[in-house]
Amino acid sequence: MTGQVKTISGHRGLQLEEPLIFEQGAPEKSAVDLPAPAQPVGGDRLGAARRGRIGLPGLSEPEVVRHYLRLSQKNYSIDSGLFPLGSCTMKHNPRLNEKLARLPGLGDLHPLQPVSTVQGALRLMHTLTRWLTTLSGLPAVALSPAAGAHGELVGLMTIRAALEDRGDPRRRVLVPESAHGTNPATAAACGYAVEAIPADDRGRVDVARLRAALAPDVAAIMVTNPNTCGLFETDVREIAEAAHAVGAFFYCDGANFNAIVGRVRPGDLGIDCMHINLHKTFSTPHGGGGPGSGPVVLSAALAPYAPVAYVIEEEGSFRLIEHAMHAAGKPCGRVKGFHGQFGMFVRALAYMMSMGADGLRQASADAVLNANYILAQLADVLSAPFPGPCMHEALFDDRFLKDNGVSTLDFAKAMIDEGFHPMTVYFPLVVHGAMLVEPTETESKETLDSFVGALKGLAERARAGDAAFFHAAPRLAPRRRLDETLAARRPVLRWRPQAPEASEGDAVGRAAE
Amino acid sequence: MRYLPLTEDDRRQMLAAIGVDSIDALFRDVPPDALLSRPVDLPCHADEITVERAFRDYAAENVSPASVPSFLGAGAYRHHVPAAVDHLIQRGEFLTAYTPYQPEIAQGTLQYLYEFQTQVALITGMEVANASLYDGATACAEAMAMACRLTKRKRVLLSGGLHPHWRATAETYARFLAIDAVAQPPSWAGDERPEDRLDTDTACVIVQNPDVFGRVHNYRGLAEACRAKGALLVIAVAEVVSLGALTSPGDMGADIVAAEGQSIGNAPSFGGPTVGLLAARERFLRQMPGRLVGETVDQDGRRGFVLTLSTREQHIRREKATSNICTNSGLCALAFTIHLTMLGETGFTRLAAVNHARACALADRLASVSGAELLNETFFNEFTVRLSRPADEVVEHLAKRGVLGGVPLTRLLPAWREASPLLILAATELTTDAEINALATALTEVLR
Question: Is residue A508 scored above 70 in pLDDT?
Answer without folding.
Answer: no
